[in-house]
Amino acid sequence: MCGINGILHLQSQKKIDERILTKMRDSLEHRGPDDKGLFIENNIGFGHRRLSILDISLAGHQPFLSEDGRYVLVYNGEIYNFKEFYPELKSNGFDIKTTSDTEVLMKLFQLHGLKMLNRLNGMFAFAIWDKMEKKLIVVRDRMGVKPLYYSFYNETFYFASEQKALFTAGVPLKMAQDGLQEYIFNRFVAGENTLYQNVKKVLPGHIMTIHEGGKVTTKKWWDLKKEIQNQPEIKNPVEWFRETFDDSIKLRMVSDVAVGVLLSGGLDSSSILASLFHQNYKDIQTFNIGFKEKEHNESHLAKMMAEKFDYGFHTMQLEHTKLYDKLISSTYFQDEPIMHLSEPHLLAVSQMAKPSVKVLLSGEGADELMGGYVRYKALQYPSLLNSIATISNLDVFIKNPRYEKLMRYAQIKKKSELIIYNGSNIFPKDIAKTFGINTPPKNEYRKQIYQEAKSLYPDNLRRQALYFDQHTYLCSLLDRNDRCTMGASIECREPFLDPRLVVGLGSIEDKWMFAGKKWKFILKSSMEERLPDKILKFRKVGLSVPWGDYITKSPVFKEELESFSRSDLFQIPYFEHINIQKLVQNLQKGDTRMTSYIMPLFMMHIWMKTYTTKF
């Protein structure tokens, strides 16, 4: 697990400035405090910061050169099944000199080229420079667990694990209008674009090749839709799921350092713990964030599960000044305004875990794979949504936040937009009414993924929403996990995102997702002998945070709220019609509905005030 960065001048006579490359690399020190390296040769330069997980000796040092001197590699991630390739590599004349997956990755590339990618079970973003052909190859894993950003600027290609390294190199920090629109309407920017002009992501499951002269090609090496279509029928889904899930956990325990678990107390993280116990793993440490507000708290369940399996349990709460400080820190690590609103908590719990472990297992991905969000239920009966849209002034709908949101969602008429805005908190009509912003974003990438989902699951809005979220919302969650855990110099691994599970779950019948009261039926069926009813039947809370209370009642946030009312944010033409004083006053009077409108703006205010001034 590491931070990677690099520079390729497209004009071969231009030499790398070592000072700039070093500054880029060291802006990512939190991603890799254990070791650092540089490779510079004429117009190409790589930087690397290492968090030592596999082969913690100097043998795992990067940038990593092939023995014949042709290739140079910088790599961020883990190949969990790397030892499977030892016999094949040895039979083809390769000596294995380390216990590092980096060496295996390089030698597989030498043997098979990029055809080896489909055989890797792992999370990764890497770059390889081919000295002979003068080309740079950058690759990202299937689901986008590991980040990779790039920019073409001044006839130079820059890439890095985080945007801050690009800005450190001199790429201008400027907001993109399309990105700003998508942030307001959809909570985050999906696809290859970002919030910034001239800064893009390598898409999950994609390869980019940049030739020294400037020619660029992009290729999709993993296509989820095709994989699902080619998946053989799964005869016994419960047995298949349990066995594959256990094996996924086993693979993700491959480590030369301690591995712990992010334990919320919900079904997903408890299932990970139950699998570890079932496979006889001992001395596991678990880490939890608790809340004093009962409706947000699951820590009592997490503690119960840890004690049940005789594992260590560590919990904490985050409030007031400590919460504010973690908000500022997490905004820096995120490189963008935070949008899930749980980033400060995830950073804090990771920092709590750091003295004990270097790796954490997370339950991320289970909801998007198996239908875990309540918002999917609205897609079960589209005709009922139409009926709800006609209801007005019904107290039970207005007073209950969940029903009130459903009423607003029901105003959407197009099926495509029901999918595209399913993960939003405020919808186009709300934004037009409250913000005076009438033009939604182009959302070209979202529309493309919707069309894929529609062709794969015709007339099935719930399955379309899952596929759509796997390419959009889940990517933003994985980015959050990566930034918050790596902000504490910890690696995060997601067992539910094993490619065998992702593809297999996409191929099975609806009933395995949507049967029962709480859905995720296949996970509950697989775990019913391992988990108590309290876990199997508990109402889903997730990492939800009562921000409306925090920013109106906590002294440090009340002060920031006053500053927010006068923020430079509202000098931006896009926001000129927002009456922010009125929104804040309504929130202060107890109108909790305002939280959904205020929080994205408040977090953008924090980002403008604390992040953009650093570059």
Description:
With 615 residues, the protein is α+β, with helices and mostly antiparallel strands. The protein is built from 28 helices and 17 strands. The strands form 3 sheets. The protein has a 6-stranded antiparallel beta sheet with strand order 2-3-1-9-8-10. Helix 10 (320-334) packs across helix 11 (343-353), helix 11 (343-353) packs across helix 20 (473-486) and helix 18 (444-456) packs across helix 19 (461-471). The longest helix has 17 residues, at 594-610. The protein starts with a strand and ends in a 5-residue tail after the last helix. The model has no long low-confidence stretch (mean pLDDT 94).
Shape: globular
Q: What strand line-up does the widest sheet have?
A: 2-3-1-9-8-10
- Structural class comes to alpha+beta
Low-confidence stretches: none
How far apart are the first and last residues' alpha carbons, in Å? 26 Å
Q: How many beta-strand elements?
A: 17
Largest sheet: 6 strands, antiparallel
Subunit organisation of the chains: single chain
Sheet-strand content, in percent, reads 5-15%
The Rg value, from CA coordinates, equals 24 Å
Helix content: 40-55%
The averaged pLDDT comes out at 94
Number of distinct helices: 28
